[in-house]
Amino acid sequence: MSRMACKSGVVLAACVLLALCGCGTRRIEGSGVGAGTTAPFTLAITSPFTLGTTDDLPSNYTVLSFRITVTSAVLQPGNVSLISSPETIELTQLQTDNFDIATKDVATGNYTSLDVTFANPDMTIYNGAQSISNCAIGAICEMQPVLDTASFSLAPALTLTANTPSAVELELSINDSLQPDLSFDPTGGMTFTTPPSVESSAALLPLNTVAGVVTSVGSNQFGMTTLAGQELTIQTNSSTVYSYPATVCKTGEFACLATGQILSVDMNVLGTGALQANNVIFEDNSGDPAISGAVAAIDTTSNPPQITLVIHGQAPATTGIEEDNVATVSLQKTTTYLIDADVLTIPSGFTFASTTDLVVGQEILVRGNSIDVTPKTNLPSVIAISTNQVILRQSQWTGTVGIANSGVDAFTLTSLPDLFTNETPTAITNLYAITSTPTDFVNTNLTNLTAGTPVTLKGLIFSNTVNPVTSPSDVASIVQGAPNFPSVAAHQSRAKAH
User: Fold this and answer.
1) What residue ranges do the domains of the chain occupy?
2) How far, in Å, CA of 484 to CA of 209, rounded?
3) What number does CATH give the domain 203-284?
4) Is 56 exposed, middle or buried (0-12, 13-18, 19+ CB in 10 A)?
5) How distant, in Å, are the alpha carbons of 48, 251, 280 from that of 297?
């Protein structure tokens, strides 16, 4: 593994407008609607594959994980701090989704800028191009890119009105920010959006497939620590749908919740900043840590079989493990393979039941039965995980449309990252993207998906092949066209059918 020099503490100044946006998980501070002289203000971030301004990402590199820390966010004038402590954010999981940095009651009035400070970028790549910083061709390497200063001044000013929810979303594209030498310069990869506002009790934006461990259960609400380490309080109501196996809880209601459970939650951020659960999906209750990440390599010849996992999150946290770390996961003979389908309907014949169903690029959640972390001087730690449960979850990848066929509600995604096309012994050159009623189309539709159109997919990747291609399939929950901005209006939170 290799490391590059890191220059932290970079100030990003930006002048933002009014209104609101999408996010991912959050912290609420302040007294809430009703103070009379304040307004709920939400700050969020997303990471579309490209903003359409530049394309500096070197070819043949696949970014498997990228985390960066927001150390401060301050509205001016008045030095109004929006966050009380740094937030570390994993960007590759935000190509179609959003991350809620904070919600805070802010004094009403006019603001002319928002100053944001970033620090400590860290990324893991698959190198399919050339040796760089001691990262050999074909290797998976964690490195710390140099962070260059970038300032922005966007008009008009932000006006906050009493008791009226407002928000701003930072859009930070990895693809547009990485330079040929793999330094990180967000000058061409950063912008802002300000979608329209909503009523205080209405859904401001959806947060889907947010996983974590239950830390408390109260009256019509529960606490959860997410895989990203955020502490959330999530409300429930009579419309909340609970998906539990009968062996765990037969009633499928709020009473099924218990501390220590690993859940995946689809929810809405309300105008007040509160979180409202729509779907609560059971993942595990073993008490062992849950570790999520992307499958980067598969070795079925070893005994036991092993996969290389680039970590995207964990809950509860394990000392010595961070997002972007690379782990070797050993699959026990008794390993159970499960699918978190969320609102998707899995086509007949599609399976995830053994090592033969594993494919690079899949996002999985593994149960950490045993975890061994060996620190290395000036190098990432060596992490070994043994598991007896693997859950298939939705991944996010960008390519271009190959064969478009709206008649069967499907198309092929080609121009895939080198992680897929360099796969041995058989290169994966296409994904067969299958859409259905639950699929959200953002900035596009099936009719507009002509050959060569850039598209980002969020969905479940299966090893199954479907004519006319002989490559794996992607059952899509989101098909996002360019510009790749996650749309609040288009991403209304999903409600699982009863």
Assistant:
1) 10-193, 203-284, 290-393, 396-481
2) 19
3) 2.40.50.320
4) buried
5) 25, 40, 31
User: Cα–Cα distance between 235 and 268 in angstroms, integer?
Assistant: 10
Taking the C-alpha atoms of residue 206 and residue 492, their distance in angstroms, rounded to an integer, is 6
Q: Which residues pair with 282 in a beta bridge?
A: 263
Please list, in sequence order, all residues whose beta carbon lies within 8 angstroms of the beta carbon of residue 5, skipping any fewer than 6 positions away: 144, 146
Other Cβ atoms within 10 Å of 145 Cβ, number: 25
The answer to which of 191-205, 316-330, 351-365, 420-434 has the lowest mean pLDDT is 191-205
Stated pTM of the model: 0.89
At 419 the three-state DSSP class reads helix
CATH of domain 396-481: 2.40.50
Instruction: Look up the CATH number of domain 290-393.
Output: 2.40.50.320
Query: Is residue 287 a contact partner of residue 260, using CB atoms and an 8 Å limit?
Result: yes
Tokens of 263: 């859940």
Over the stretch 230-241, which tens digit does the pLDDT of each residue have? 999 999 999 999
**Residues facing residue 262 across a β-bridge:** 213, 284
Largest CA distance in the chain: 66
CB-CB contact of 167 with 121 (8 Å): no
